[in-house]
Amino acid sequence: MPGALDGLRVIEVAQNIAGPLCAMNLADHGADVIKVEPLTGEGARSVPPIVEGESAAFMIWNRNKRSIALDLKKPSDFDTLMKLAADADIFLQSFRPGVAARLGMSWEQLNGRFPRLIYGSISGYGQTGPDAARGGFDLMAQGMSGLMNITGPRDGQPHRLPIPICDIAAGLNLTIGLLAAVEARHRTGRGQHVETSLLEAGISLQLYEAAHYFTTGTNPPRLGQAHRGVAPYQVFPCSDGYVTVGAGLQHFFEAFCRFAELPQLIEDPRFIELHDRVAHNDELVRLLSAATVQHPVHYWVNGLDQIGVPCAPVLNHDQLFNHPQVVHRGMVETVSHPKLGPTKTLGVSVKLSDTPGSIRMPAPMLDQHAGEIRQTLERTRSS
To answer: Which is catalytic among the residues 167, 305, 318, 354?
Structure first.
């Protein structure tokens, strides 16, 4: 079945996570993504874990793509890239600002040759501004965006989130921008430059923190497990693991207290209203935790779920990828790799009813599709 983006061609000259993740999102929904790599391969091919010489991480966010290896400083290879761009809808690059221009493939240079081409750029800090030329990874973006400063124990040092959240969010933001530009081109007939950065991705995630700073003028503090405006809303210990409970609304809070056999907390002056509970969250959590730790996870999940209180277990990855809901939603799929055979990968997380996304092929081997790509260019030139 054709995907929603069937017929859309994307040239990806990107590395690491953000740009390639954006291209993967487009590929999952039917776009023909041609990944242009250096002759030695994109850098993420060396990211562990390595299985029989192949990066398992690279395979996760580079599926559904075709690969061609080019030396972009070599005139004939650069000419191949320009031929690919001439027949493409989107050109996506993640060089540090200024590098694409030196290579002859900046937005201005390509827009002059291919006015319908949509050009996507992703960088550490953006294409303009005093820090534009600086290189940046997810770690730097987490720090500079303020995310790190609000993460970690209340009295501890700033913590890095254990996932590359700025990389991932930037890739998602660029996906949205590129699709918006495709829609705009239907009306204008012209491509445009779509650009975002890891820094802006980190900033855009901080809704509560921005509201706090803009209204109070003070820096939002680190809160550990606590929520900035809702209580109780965090992780609670059980006799055999942990459970998350979101009982900020009054009726949820009262139901939680009754199920925990702590009805006296409902009338406690410290916890009567939501703002009271937020102000006294530490005491509230201490009292509730003394109750939750007495029973196993399934006791709380089953019991709270029956009375409508939002809750869920804290799963490890073995539990996660074997959980009936996760399996039912297709979030674990198997794809046949040309070297490794059947391998598991993450499923497509956005479900479309009429034109669903799909995993049609594994991440490519380096230069795997060079022959067919060049043949297509030859046919296009001769037609």
So the answer is: 167
Find, among 77, 103, 86, 282, the residue nearest to 94 by Cα: 103
Cβ–Cβ < 8 Å for 118, 192:
yes
- Predicted TM-score of the model (pTM): 0.94
d(CA 42, CA 62): 11
Number of CB atoms found within 10 A of residue 241's CB = 15
pLDDT value of position 182: 99
Over residues 320-337, mean pLDDT: 97
* C-beta of residue 268 within 8 angstroms of C-beta of residue 317: no
Length of the chain: 383
CATH superfamily of 233-237+242-313: formyl-coa transferase, domain 3 (3.30.1540.10)
- Which tens digit of pLDDT belongs to each residue from 33-53? 999 999 999 999 999 999 999
Q: Where are the alpha helices (DSSP H) in 29-160?
A: 56-60, 75-86, 99-103, 107-113, 138-144
- Partners of 129 in beta bridges: none
Amino acid identity, residue 37?
E
User: Taking the domains of the chain in order of start, what are their residue ranges?
Assistant: 9-205+325-382, 233-237+242-313
9-205+325-382: CATH architecture? 3-Layer(aba) Sandwich (3.40)
279 vs 273: CA distance, rounded Å:
10
Decide: residue 137, CB within 10 A, 0-12 exposed, 13-18 middle, 19+ buried. Answer: middle
Query: pLDDT tens digits, residue range 276-290?
Result: 999 999 999 999 999
CB hemisphere CA count around 374 (13 angstroms): 12
Has 276 been annotated as catalytic?
A: no
Q: How much is the average pLDDT of 16-41?
A: 98
